[in-house]
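Practice record 12: protein with iron/sulfur cluster.
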Amino acid sequence: KDIKKHFPVGSGLFGKKNHFVKAVDGVSLDIYPGETVGLVGESGCGKSTTGRMVVGLSDPTGGEIYFEGKKLNEYKAKKSLGKNLQMIFQDPYSSLNPRMTVADIIAEPLVLHKVGTASERRKRVDELLERVGLASYHGNRYPIEFSGGQRQRLGIARALALQPKLIVCDEPVSALDVSIQAQILNLLKEIQNDMGLSYLFIAHGIQAVKHISDKIAVMYLGKIIEFANKEELFENPRHPYTKALLSAVPHPDPKMRNRERIILTGDLPSPANPPAGCSFHTRCPVAMEQCKRIDPNLLPTSKQSLTACLLFEDKVAN
Ligand code: SF4
Ligand code: MG
């Protein structure tokens, strides 16, 4: 609820004192049991930082995070509830300790949370290896002996060790060969169906979250600018930024294929110095004069969608 991550930067920068980089600036999001919320946006928009705060790897500087109605901000709550929240990282090469055996890597969360005896943990590791499609004899090997896709399977096994309820998947397939990506996505879906897990699935491209997501949140410069059911987002995108992202994706319906491609000009502004008013106004193809002054709120635009754009502020849905 309204989570923020503001990093202080040296005073005097940009001629202002106590200046902050607003990496995440007021994100609110609900994730229900068994569903996948895709979180998309360009590099540097704050999506990974949001994911890290959700699982407790980073503390928000404002706002609150709730898990099953309980506030997670306090240290004690984090310790007791934290095992429900796990993360799968983008880079399967750097997220596994090369000096540890696969069995020790996967058992590490169990050791940290003091779950089971050594032999019970080993049994659990074998089950987890099989769950992710690897034979249990792999437990005595080292990460270097595995391919990228296999290493991501190990990362998934480690994330499943404590039987979490929510996994934040931070671009889990973008470092993998295209031929391997579908295998890993299918594995994640299968596991979700078996365990009733929820995912917050982070990616920079909207197409990458299309198949796995139930709902999609689009981030721009630290804020969610559109949040909708997947079908609605793809069929009826409202925010000009979402429209631009989608116009770059080939449409499955041939009649829709020659719709106009919206090319955004200009780079993503720095979150250290975001534009005033609507932060998208410097690149928005339909920006109006008031967009330079007024920062739009994320408001309902239908039963299934929220949009932060002045074009919709007077058209709040029924
Ligand atoms: Fe574009 Fe204005 Fe809407 Fe921002 S508020 S997205 S600048 S039209
Ligand atoms: Mg990232």
